[in-house]
Amino acid sequence: MKKFICLMLAILTGFISGCGLARIPEAHLTESIEDNIENTHEPVEPRPVYGGELNVPLTSLDSFNPLLTKSRDVLNFLGLIYESAITYDKDLKPAPSLVTGWEVSPDGRLWVFDVRKGVKWHNGQDLTGDDILFTLHALQSETLESFFSISSEDIKIVESGLRGGDPYTFYIRLEEPTYRILDYLTFPVLPQNIYASAEFMMEYKEDLTMLPMGSGPYRVDQTHNFDGDTIKLIRNESWWNGTPYIDSINGKLYDSVDEAFNAFYNNEIDLIDTTAVYANTRLYRNSANHIKYNTSDIEMLVFNNNNNLFNDKSVRKAIAYGIDRKDIISKVYLNNAETVDVPIPSNSWLYDSSYRIYDYDEKRAKKLLKEAGWNDNDGDGILDVKQGDTSVDLSFTILTNSDNSWRVDAAELIAEQLTEIGFKVQVEALPWEVLYEERIATGDFDAILIGYSLDPMLNLSSLFHAEWIKYSSPQLDVLLERAADAYTEDDRLNAYQEIQKYLTEEMPVISLYFKTGSLLVDSRINGIEHVGELRIFKDIKNWFIIP
Predict the structure, then answer these.
(1) In this structure, are residues 350 and 493 in contact, taking their beta carbons and an 8 Å threshold?
(2) Is 42 exposed, middle or buried (0-12, 13-18, 19+ CB in 10 A)?
(3) Domain spanning 2-20+48-270+524-545: which superfamily?
């Protein structure tokens, strides 16, 4: 499971959530994107047209295999070529894709899936359950280094295969029941006749002459030789889900996000995907639209609950009420984040808004601290508590990583805000490697302001059992286990509601906000209905280009 989480973090955050993006050249600093957008009249909805060419960036190309790449841009691009057995809808709920439906036994251990008939690989061969099972078995192998890999510690598959030899029906038998089998089937499906084995994939992991071949809406143009700079895709006229409007899509290679931004500014590419706050600091074309979307990147204040100060629930709650998250989002993130009280995105079907309770409340924070025995006994403005002949100040240090300037700014602002309710807070910013190896890994900290990228299946057990979460609770463990074992929608929803209730009542960590993603796209591109993290091209069928 640790490998799964680490690699997931690598995809979503550039290997470590704690690491920041490249610094921005001064020449590109500008005012907020929102300040550059002018809408003087009601736009006329254009009608879809066929044709056109879309140019998109590929940064840090490492592999054309969607199971092996660690590049966010590459994975999004390969989503045009490959499909998954199950996808996520707009509410992040598992939904049919290459499978049309499924049934589960009463004990939740046997799952039977119906494969969509009539789906063709780009070479004209039929896609069957054998291909899905092949990819599943490859991901079960310890050989394949993929963030889609299925850990036996997380989900135990007893057996799988075609049901009754039917190529369009397969089954998976689990040792323990869990709804998460649906989440795991969101991996890109590879054709068995091309990729052969997990060992074969690893051998040719970095072989860029082995061009991708899937079943999706776009396929590699065989008449165009990949020259190391551009890979050309053309519309898959035989795609089972309809005919896309756009004729072709060019993936252009760049070494960094900065290079890709410059290319976007110079009209070399038609879109770029990044964080909204980063986009707001860059010069961009006036002909671009700015599409924001929710991400799984959460910022949290994590306590060392081995510290007597943070063992007190009242103190943790006081801190939650004493942090003005809206102020931080406004001043630091330029309004490109969403406040939360639990580590669950608001666009998830598992989120319950009734557990949104910790809005900034200075009076309530002070009341909680007073009830916990903290008073300003010496009149210096810092609360303290008497311990014999001495007094102990209400103080602690927030650690964060110096290579993320936004996070450092947020930590400084939190320190200022908590001073208003009687805390003495210091901020210590260290390079990520030093922070992690010397302080986090050893438990040498009071509190950490840190980022974390949740996986789409919201495996909160991995979060709360991470080595840097210095909190343990048998009650929470029971709730997390219940969520993991739930195999019906109702049971899963109820389990996550109980977890949210517990987290807001106990406040073991302070969930601050989810960062907002941003797709900058040329105004000629229309029909974009829904953009999701790592699913930029999910609705590519509806996109069209106005000449």
Answers:
(1) yes
(2) exposed
(3) Periplasmic binding protein-like II (3.40.190.10)
Rounded Cα distance, 361 and 359, in Å: 6
CATH superfamily of 294-517: Dipeptide-binding Protein; Domain 3 (3.10.105.10)
CA atoms lying within 13 Å on the CB side of residue 36 = 17
Domain 2-20+48-270+524-545 matches domain 294-517 at the CATH topology level = no
Model pLDDT for residues 210-247, shown as the tens digit of each residue? 889 999 999 999 887 777 789 999 999 999 999 999 99
Type of residue found at 109: R
Contact 60, 11 (CB under 8 A): no
Model pLDDT, residue 144: 82
Tokens representing 175 are 């040792």
pLDDT exceeds cutoff 80 at 7: no
Note whether 206 and 62 are within 8 A (CB). yes
Question: Tokens for 340?
Answer: 């939360």
Q: Would you list the domain boundaries of the chain?
A: 2-20+48-270+524-545, 294-517
**Structure confidence by residue, pLDDT tens digits, 12-44:** 333 334 343 333 333 333 333 344 434 444 556
The residue type found at 488 is T
- The whole-number pLDDT of residue 445 equals 95
Which pair of structure tokens corresponds to residue 328?
């931080």
Full-model pTM? 0.83
Note the Cα 217 to chain centre separation in Å: 24
